[in-house]
Amino acid sequence: MLRLSGTLLNRPVLSLRTGGLVATTTTPIINPDNLKIEGFYCFGNDDKNVKVLLYQDIRDIIPQGFIIDDYGVLADPQELIRLEKVMQLGFDPLGKQVVTVSKQKVGKVSDYATEMETMYIQKIYVSQSLLKSFTGGNLGIERSQIHEITPKKIIVQDLLKRAPATTPAGI
User: Fold this and answer.
1) What is the pTM of this model?
2) How far apart are CA 92 and CA 96, in angstroms?
């Protein structure tokens, strides 16, 4: 199931053990090398310190929020050595410039859709310039069309041009 980025942010984190709210997610931790959400920064209700909820510790996602076993699965960011470089990058695709391999400007990332079982970003949505948005609106780009990700932009395969509508000869 795909979910848009807005449905993952500022969500309650609920504990199965206590049956209540233990934290609230703030921002995702995204690995730019593979576009995987490794986890979420969140604020615990008890100590108000920043914690990290790793994606593998999420038992379920329901309309009320993320379900975890217990508050104990939330980690301090300093404890996560494996994710240290990814957390330092602070990668967020929202607002990144999108260009094609042939250096044509496409627009900026306005949203993305994540597959919830694997936590991979499967699609990015690009808002185009005002002139292009009149003719084409927002543009959805599949994960397979992404060529490269740099700190400042996302480079995608060249987009197909729409052929002008023509009437068949003899009509």
Assistant:
1) 0.83
2) 8
